[in-house]
Fold this sequence. Notes:
This protein has 5 helices and no strands. The longest helix is centred in the middle third of the chain and has 27 residues, at 53-79. It is an all-alpha fold.
Amino acid sequence: YLLYNDRSKVSTGASGDIRMATSILVNAIYRGGVSEKLPPVDIEYMKELGSQTFQVLADQEIKDWLERAVSDAEKLLKEHWGKVDAFARILLKKESMTGSEITEVFQSIGM
């Protein structure tokens, strides 16, 4: 969606990445006790006990993490857009590339 500056035009690849990131964060925060704002509790267990407070806070933290990640990714892509575009143009010309070919291309465009 960076090409159009329109979040409604997220590709299926990007939406799959967002789904995976969300899943990782849900597992880390809900089950793993990995949180900047919450104590190390199993939020699923707390829900079973009838506590919605932890769920609300955890959901907000997941949202915050995802928003920061998207913002960081946008910043990096915009900062290096010329290199991204150059690499994409090369990929469009080749059906497949070996690891060493990709390394060579990265070096040639300064990545």
